[in-house]
Amino acid sequence: MREPFEEAVQRHGGTVLKVCRAVLGPGPDADDAWQETFIAALRQWPELDPLMPLEPWLVRVAGRKAIDVVRGRNRRAVPLGELPERGPAVGSIASDAVEHGVEVWSAVAALPERQRLAVAYHYLGGLPHADTAALIGGSPESVRRASSDGIRALRRQWTPERMGAE
Question: What is each CA distance from 99 to 20, 54, 87, 110, 152, in whole angstroms?
Fold first, then answer.
């Protein structure tokens, strides 16, 4: 018998949100994709096979919802004109956990698309490389390489000094 839907949201919601943020960056788009994932899950809940692993299925749904958001971004109007200059970030990463989180998600979002998706689905979503390859295309070996390159790029950017460690 399948667990109650509310328990599934509590148990897997964090993983789904990580995947959405890794694909879309922090902000309302990731939150919307998270919400759309669980709306779709709620619609399918009565028909789901109780023996099917739930988290990988939710990660796949989240990936598709995030891709829908990316496609929607490409159809939106782009404002023209001068943008205001960006001021310095307020606070340090070590003292402001919220800003730190936004910067980390921004760094993940800045990765090349294939690396970002491979990191999101494999490391944050827990999908095997073969399943990730089925989602984003290519072979498991190419996805393994893309995820490895993405993690390497993040490690170069997020050194212990940057993280505030001594």
Answer: 18, 32, 14, 16, 22
Rounded-to-integer distance, Cα 17 and Cα 106, Å:
14
**CB-CB contact of 16 with 34 (8 Å):** yes
Greatest CA separation for the chain:
57
**Residue-averaged pLDDT of the chain:** 80
pLDDT value of residue 3 = 81
Residue 142 CA to residue 88 CA, distance in Å, equals: 38
